[in-house]
Design a protein that fits this description.
Layout: H1 16-28, E1 30-33, H2 45-48, E2 52-56, H3 59-65, E3 76-83, H4 88-97
Antiparallel strand pairs: 1-3, 2-3
Helix pairs in contact: 1-4
Length: 104
């Protein structure tokens, strides 16, 4: 895994701990769930057979939190994510966070 520069800034939508979860999932794969997530069903083979899972933010959150009154487009959420190691989606995310835009 590429080592990120030590001075990651706090982005408008994420903190350093949120950034690190992407790096960890890219390098090692696995499942990430925030502590306030409650599984309503077991993670069975149907779910775990996917190479990458990103949860969806409830639509009401995009309407309230982002002042997006006319949108019906759901937002991705990082509250629950699962992937295999080196998945292309997380490779892209890691590359974005490795750009100069995210550093002081």
């Amino acid at each position: 895994m590429e080592i990120v520069k030590s001075k990651l800034i706090l982005c408008g939508f994420c903190t350093q701990t949120e950034i690190w979860r992407y790096f960890i999932l890219y390098q090692y794969g696995g499942i990430w769930a925030d502590l306030d997530i409650e599984l309503l069903r077991p993670l069975d083979g149907k779910v775990l057979n996917n190479s990458c899972i990103i949860s969806q933010e409830p639509l009401v959150n995009s309407l309230l939190m982002y002042d997006n009154k006319n949108s019906t487009i759901p937002f991705a959420s990082n509250e629950f994510m699962a992937c295999v190691p080196k998945h292309p989606f997380f490779k892209f995310v890691v590359q974005v966070f490795n750009t100069e835009y995210y550093y002081q």
